[in-house]
User: What shape does this take?
Amino acid sequence: MEKIIEIKNLTKIYKNGIKALENINLTINRGEKITIFGPNGAGKTTLIKTIGMFIIPDKGKITIKGYNIKKESKKIKKLISIATSNERSFYYRLSLEENLNFFGMLNNLTGKELKKKVEKGLKEMGLYETRKIKYMEASTGMKRRLNLARALIKEAEIYLLDEPTNGVDIETKIKIYEIMEELSQKGKTIILASHDVSEIEKTDRIVVLKKGKITADKKTGEILEKTTRKNEEKLLELIK
Ligand SMILES: Nc1ncnc2c1ncn2[C@@H]1O[C@H](COP(=O)(O)OP(=O)(O)OP(=O)(O)O)[C@@H](O)[C@H]1O
Assistant: This one.
């Protein structure tokens, strides 16, 4: 298996003294679908954002496809696409469609390809009808879906998705799972931060974080049963 992400002795301490990540060691292979699972405040978002280069770690090393994130961030930017909640980097006065167009252009999409991808993204996320609404006038759910559409239209090798189906309706949820499956079929690596059983079931591996430390790393099938009934209890057992 080809290693795509290697994390060694990663530590992140916020200015308020909170150690959000402590000595994390993790290797992720190309094409894996993996969930970072843990209770509130465990460090999931911090880990996702550190891999996504939004957060600078205090200690440790991350390499992506052999590139060091400290020294070769430009190369890595092309390889990753990230969707986190509380996204602030949209233009408030632009419409949903204009925001996606702008982002597509930043990612070197032009002409027909840009148009096609933006349209597909809007349709997949159920935003086509409301595409002319200004970002500042969109509902929270629309903003979340736009955030996902933006992450999913980018041609990347690694998709980092922080609770991707949180706050979206069932139809969009199913669509997101379909897209995740499509990406996976193409050999893309997908990393989720999640509490959601149905989301976790779609991944192959579960890495459990507790108070900034990895406490378990298992194949999803080793933990969860095929029938989903008891799975919520099993996941709770892991973070007790
Ligand atoms: N910008 C920040 N400044 C200071 N402390 C922070 C900051 N962001 C997160 N923390 C703290 O770091 C710890 C890990 O937070 P993080 O958001 O990574 O956890 P999480 O597992 O994603 O939680 P949740 O499931 O609630 O989203 C928490 O104790 C949190 O309060």
Remarks:
- Residues 14, 16, 18, 20, 38, 40-46, 193 surround adenosine-5'-triphosphate (CB under 6 Å).
